[in-house]
Design a protein that fits this description.
alpha+beta; about 230 residues; 9 strands; Ribosomal Protein S5, domain 2; 4 helices; 4-stranded antiparallel β-sheet; about 25% helix; single chain
């Protein structure tokens, strides 16, 4: 039994507030356990400057920021730009994961910016950002009459190996002690979009353990995809 009473394959309680703010084309307040974040989708009717002029369609990009008060010890604002090196890596992950859900040729010429702001961090902020940003993206595409550009849903979840046991959707107390940390993003068709992982204790992970963790992550993503679908029909 885990410290919060969950089974090894249980997600934390999830609450989704769609259309949380009125100004962006899509917005979601996502709570997953004690992790809380705001994901918004803003549409600009142009493509990036680097976009090839002969290429039809648009672009989806993402930005990620943990607000200073999101952690018990205040997290300083980045000294350069709007995020730090960790945030840059995470926002690229979010962007790649969400572009897997879209046929870019059918959404242009528009750029959809997904902004993920962590209000309270208790583990799994990058994977929760992907889940929330997908809903905001779906609403943004509907707002510009580009629903055909949304090809499939994408969700993500964390998996950890703690004391030899695979666990789904770790909070910070578990993640900080895990021997292996894995982040899995998957589409509704069952294809993995991103797999990020590392063995924190230096002991490594076996092929069999990795398979167990991927199976657990896929099952968790399927549950999250169901929650996203339920939210989008309301």
């Amino acid at each position: 039994m885990r410290h919060d009473g969950r089974a090894f394959d249980a997600l934390r309680p999830i609450k989704i507030q769609r259309r949380f703010t009125a100004t962006p084309a899509g917005s979601v307040l996502w709570s997953q356990g004690k992790t809380v974040l705001l994901a918004t989708a803003s549409v600009t009717p142009e493509v990036p400057k680097w976009f090839p002029p002969t290429r039809a369609g648009g672009w989806v990009t993402a930005e990620y920021l943990m607000l200073p008060s999101s952690t018990p010890q205040r997290k300083p604002w980045p000294n350069v730009g709007h995020t730090d090196s960790r945030g840059t890596e995470i926002q690229r992950l979010i962007g790649r994961s969400l572009r897997a859900a879209v046929d870019l040729s059918k959404i242009g010429p528009n750029t959809i910016a997904l902004d993920c702001q962590v209000l309270q961090a208790d583990g799994g902020t990058r994977t929760a950002s992907i889940c929330a940003a997908f809903i905001a993206l779906a609403d943004a595409l509907a707002a510009i009459n580009a629903k055909a550009g949304l090809t499939q849903a994408t969700a993500a979840v964390s998996v950890g190996l703690l004391n030899g046991e695979p666990l789904l959707d770790l909070d910070y107390a578990e993640d900080s002690k895990a021997d292996v940390d894995l982040n899995v993003a998957m589409t509704a068709s069952g294809k993995f979009v991103e797999i990020q992982g590392s063995a924190e204790n230096g002991g490594g992970i076996s092929h069999a353990q990795l398979g167990q963790m991927l199976d657990l992550g896929a099952a968790g993503c399927r549950k999250l995809l169901e929650l996203q679908a339920e939210c989008l029909v309301k």
